[in-house]
Design brief:
heterodimer; A: about 775 residues; alpha+beta; Aldehyde Oxidoreductase, domain 3; Aldehyde Oxidoreductase, domain 4; 7-stranded mixed sheet; 6-stranded mixed sheet; 18 helices; B: about 280 residues; Uridine Diphospho-n-acetylenolpyruvylglucosamine Reductase, domain 3; Enolase-like, domain 1; 3 domains; 5-stranded antiparallel sheet; 11 helices
Chain lengths: ~775, ~280
């Protein structure tokens, strides 16, 4: 563990890794996480008492449904209702019914809530009209009578052929010519990644409830209450007080409930407004996969100059991301992608050119990692190929280039603290027995080749059934928002001592299974000297909680947690000051009775000495970085190309561990999601439509596909946050895929440069012309 | 969800036969395929249904007249737990264990796998490889159809609209060995990319194989037998040359397609390699 420079007010009992995890009466854990609270929302979920959106009952509510385009691109000429059907018992909403702007509040505001007649359909499954009825059977019957009259237009599916650019960045540092001029080796490579679906357990769901004052309340499954709030205000023309957003229990998000819930909330609200009653908009899995956002596909090209000893001299990187049909969060995803694309490596001469373009496919958006998993797959695979070219161990190549304190990133950011790149690398290499196992897999490969039995053709099995392989990757993840994002938002988080002597935390950061409602009481209670269970979490309801920003960018523990700790410190100081300096825990009940409520609203203040220029892309792109390294071992079936990921060692520096079990859970979940990204998760498209838009065809790893996961947490604290936390949600997602792909190469000798590394691609590479997979000279 | 279609619940087979004689009914046993259709999302919802859950005649696993008889309503879980099946049709047990999740295996039935007639039905290559007969019945009488002739086209069966699948008979054959292999996208709960069952009778170390059957799923519009591969193995011993010839023959006779789960090239290559591997394992070289 890295030296800790900060006080540790969070209750953090000593733990022994040898102890088993035991749940003790009284709601705390024993053993490995002795004394840490259980997940606060856990019992309700386990017993079925938790109320997800579809469990909420609103008397008189109707069901809503969305009529979607079945073309990738077309002009919408008319929307016709079958005159032979009875439309009097339902409501139908089109763009003409929208009171405010027909735009979903977002970065570019190019996406209509519903395609207007005369407007352009830009992707398959785009919302065109809405219908609500008292029961689903009526909807099923009548929706077939809504006919879209369209004129087909030529679609664009190739992001490199699109002339509509959503965003473009260029980052420059040093002089490429100098770097390439001094190179002993120049290595080029092209890498591709496809869509990935978030696949939260709970589908998207929203219920809109019209109020008597012309207002609208929305209850639903979401990550960002104030995004939805803003969307309601803008499209329905509501005042801040008239719009209300309440988070229901949320079954996972992974970024997939960051922007799209705004659209669903608007759809439900438009129907509720016209019907004059609550409307439930509950997606089934098919609709959820077919219509909502995915991880951006990308094409990434690297050209790298390397000295004879492996020192990186120049990196020339080109990134093209497929934004899909609307902008959504694409510029920010691309920005994070560009800023992470060089990897956690010192390089004096860098050029990064990144652009994201529009295609006639469903919009891509936020997903755990947010542009970084794509580019880090590319740079890590590229580095592994450079190591192969130089005859260096992948670990040694990284040791020679990984960032150290005082190094400068391509944006000119000097890494002044909290740099654990070398440490996570060392720990992963040690814990994963990387060098020893690597020589063992090399021996296995040599024995296979030396057996004298060379496969006689594509249809013949060989002596060995499987080939073992081991792979290494590392990565970095900028903590919190990119650039000045946090400053622009100016979040507020509050801690309150209520008049009746309760302490509660008021934040808009949502619990979606990751542990928000468990770690905030832990952080706040530590400051106040109270047990964690003495601190309540206010319901996430925009009528109650302040705008502490969206639950995204791994910023909740780091940024909002930091605000709450500051608020708790101020609360403690204020209460203790008026009680003769006696400890808060002793006096707060009496203080509340005597003085009434005390509420501290803590607003985000820019971190000191952190400065980024959004126009030149120079400066401190992130206040700090999390660092990760990963060693994966695989067995590749030599008959079928199937990959079994056996073991993964994940080492993640999160700045500060707040709750070890939840933190490890984030690393394990993120790593498994990365294993899925690496091996099987794939969206296939035909004419702009997702072909595998069901759980029967979009497959993620099952328990049987999960490797043995070993997690090592490292704490290199960030001094800008009072507790030092840098976030954990996304970091593990960045490094798993390149480690698995490196292990596949170690096993069978082919580089799979396009994710996922399916058995189809592996066999094709093994059988294809040998030269094509080798690095270019 | 639309209103449930009307459902008949006969308690005797004869009653079921007369109901079927009165017009088309969609039988439901475990419902693992039908309940997907009942949402209406994937095509027309069945208009009238016939619940088989009370028909005891469709139950049971027994040895009769030199064959293993399996009632159509035998679930995958029952297959997995049956000592008779493990002894006489271990490949069928293996296939049943790869289908869906535990919940699906508890509900889904062998008769249902046959009636659904998916080209990817995992028990079907085993039934083809083991020369199973499908016994069907209706008000016009009962008859047996060889499994190899039961699937005339994509998602079609030899069943007349007024017939039910009653039981499956797998003839016992001395010295018969059956091997099963499924390749899916993941290790559980995956629809097959390639599924294969190979069966033969061995007659000692120096004699060639007889009654060789090579059956596959997910490589054609129906479950199929691979005649050329069978011919390459029939009468031969499991030598490297035989394995090569059979794998080449199989690769030549298959024309699988690209679809959402895999590619035609992959299916062809992997089918050939799996067959090669099975012969290799049998030969012990």
């Amino acid at each position: 563990m890295t030296t800790r420079t900060l006080p540790r007010p969070i209750t953090a009992p000593e733990r022994s890794a040898a102890d088993a995890l035991v749940v003790a009466p009284g709601g705390t854990t024993r053993g490995r996480a002795r004394g840490y609270p259980l997940r606060r929302e856990g019992p309700a979920k386990l017993t079925g008492a938790a109320k997800y959106a579809d469990d909420l009952v609103f008397p008189g509510a109707w069901y809503g449904a969305t009529i979607r385009s079945t073309q990738a691109r077309a002009k919408l000429v008319a929307i016709e209702l079958d005159p032979d059907l009875d439309w009097s018992k339902v409501v139908v909403v089109t763009a003409a019914d929208i009171p405010g702007e027909n735009l979903v509040a977002a970065i570019k505001e190019d996406q209509p809530v519903l395609v207007p007649v005369g407007g352009e359909i830009r992707h398959h499954a785009e919302p065109v009209a809405l219908i609500a009825a008292p029961d689903r059977e009526t909807i099923r019957r009548l929706r077939a009578g809504i006919r879209l009259v369209t004129e087909a237009l030529p679609p664009v599916f190739d992001p490199e052929r699109s002339d509509h650019v959503f965003a473009e960045y260029e980052v420059q540092n040093g002089d490429l010519e100098v770097g390439f001029g001094a190179a002993a080796h120049v290595v080029e490579g092209e890498y591709r990644v496809g869509h990935q679906e978030q696949l939260y357990i709970e589908n998207n769901a929203m219920i809109a409830v019209p109020g008597e004052d012309g207002g609208m309340a929305v209850h639903g499954s979401l990550q960002c209450p104030y995004y939805v709030h803003r969307a309601l205000r803008k499209t329905l023309g509501l005042t801040a007080g008239q719009a209300r957003v309440v988070q229901a229990e949320t079954g996972g998000g992974f970024g997939g409930k960051e922007e799209y819930p705004s659209i669903i909330a608007l759809h439900a609200a438009l129907l509720a407004r016209k019907a004059g009653r609550p409307v439930r908009m509950i997606y089934d899995r098919h609709e959820d996969i077919a219509a909502t956002t995915k991880r951006h596909p990308a094409i990434i090209r690297h050209r790298t100059a390397v000295a004879a000893d492996g020192t990186l001299l120049a990196q020339d990187i080109e990134i093209v991301m497929d934004g899909g049909a609307y902008c959504t969060l694409t510029p920010v995803v691309l920005s994070r992608g560009a800023l992470h694309s060089g990897g956690p490596y010192r390089c004096p001469n860098v050029r990064i050119r990144a652009r994201a373009t529009r295609t006639n496919t469903p919009p891509n958006g936020a997903f755990r990692g947010f542009g970084a998993p794509q580019v880090e797959f590319a740079v890590e695979t590229h580095l592994n190929r450079i190591a192969e070219r130089l005859g260096l161990s992948p670990a040694e190549l990284r040791r020679r280039n990984a960032y150290e304190l005082g190094d400068t990133t391509p944006t000119g950011q000097v890494l002044r603290e909290s740099v654990a790149a070398q440490e996570v690398l060392r720990l992963a290499v040690e814990a994963g027995d990387f060098e020893l196992l690597r020589s063992a897999t090399a021996r296995a490969a040599a024995e296979r080749l030396g057996s004298g039995e060379v496969p006689g053709g594509p249809f013949r099995s060989g002596g060995a059934r499987t080939a073992p392989g081991i792979g290494l990757a590392m990565g970095w993840h900028g903590a919190g928002f990119t650039g000045s994002g946090e400053v622009h938002i100016g979040s507020v988080a509050s801690v309150e001592l209520t008049a009746d002597g309760r302490v509660r935390v008021l934040i808009a950061s949502t619990e979606m299974g990751q542990g928000t409602t468990t770690i905030f009481p832990l952080m706040v209670s530590g400051e106040l000297g109270l047990p964690a269970q003495a601190v309540e979490m206010a319901p996430v309801d925009t009528a109650i909680v302040p705008d502490s920003g969206p639950t995204v960018a791994s910023r909740t523990a780091m940024v909002v947690g930091g605000l709450c700790i500051e608020a708790a410190r101020r609360l403690r100081a204020e209460v203790e000051a008026r009680n003769d300096g006696r400890p808060f825990a002793e006096v707060y009940l009496a203080d509340a009775a005597a003085h009434g409520p005390t509420r501290i609203d803590q607003r985000f203040e820019p971190y000191p000495d952190i400065d980024f220029d959004d126009t030149t892309y120079q400066g401190d792109a992130y206040p700090a970085f999390g660092w990760a390294a990963c060693v994966a071992t695989v067995d590749v079936d030599l008959d079928t190309g199937e990959v079994a990921v056996r073991d993964v060692v994940a080492v993640d520096d999160v700045g500060r561990v707040i709750h070890p079990i939840l933190c490890e859970g984030q690393v394990e979940g993120g790593t498994l999601q990365a294993v899925g990204y690496a091996t099987i998760e794939e969206i296939k498209l035909q004419d702009g439509r997702y072909l595998n838009d069901r759980l029967a065809t979009y497959l993620i790893p099952t328990a049987l596909d999960a490797p043995r996961l070993r997690t090592i947490l490292v704490e290199a604290p960030f001094s800008g946050a009072p507790h030092g936390a840098k976030g954990v949600g996304e970091l593990p997602m960045d490094v798993g895929a390149p480690a698995v792909v490196a292990a596949i190469h170690d096993a069978v000798g082919v580089w799979i440069t396009e994710l996922p590394a399916t058995p189809e691609r592996i066999l094709a590479a093994l059988e294809g012309p040998r030269g094509t997979q080798e690095p270019a000279a | 969800m639309p209103a449930e279609p009307p459902i008949e619940v006969p308690v005797r087979l004869s009653e079921a036969y007369s109901l079927l004689a009165g017009g088309p009914l969609v039988p439901i046993a475990g419902g693992t395929d039908i309940m997907v259709r009942i949402t209406g999302e994937l095509g027309p919802v069945p208009e009238r249904m016939l619940d088989l859950s009370r028909l005891d005649e469709l139950e049971g696993i027994s040895l009769e007249d030199g064959s293993l008889a399996l009632g159509a309503r035998t679930t995958y879980t029952e297959l997995r737990r049956s000592t008779l099946c493990r002894e006489h049709a271990p490949a069928l047990v293996e296939a049943a264990a790869t289908i869906g999740a535990a919940q699906i295996q508890n509900r889904g039935t062998l008769g249902g796998n046959i009636a659904n007639a998916s080209p990817a039905g995992d028990t079907l290559p085993v039934l083809l490889a083991m020369d199973a007969d499908i016994e069907v019945g209706g008000h016009r009488g009962e008859r047996r159809v060889p499994a190899a002739g039961f699937f005339p086209g994509y998602r079609q069966t030899a069943l007349a609209p007024d017939e039910l699948i009653l039981r499956i008979r797998i003839p016992l054959a001395a010295g018969r060995v059956t091997r099963f292999r499924k390749v899916g996208t993941r290790r559980a709960q995956a629809i097959s990319k390639v599924v294969m069952a190979v069966s033969w009778r061995a007659h000692g170390p120096s004699a060639g194989w007889s009654d060789v059957r090579v059956a596959l799923g997910s490589v054609a519009a129906t479950p199929i037998r691979a005649a050329a591969a069978e011919a390459a193995l029939e009468g031969a011993r499991p030598s490297p040359e035989t394995a090569d010839a059979a794998a080449e023959a199989l690769a030549d006779e298959l024309t699988p397609i690209d679809d959402v789960r895999s590619t035609g090239d992959y299916r062809r290559m992997v089918a050939a390699r799996i067959l090669h591997r099975i012969v290799r394992d049998a030969g012990g070289w």
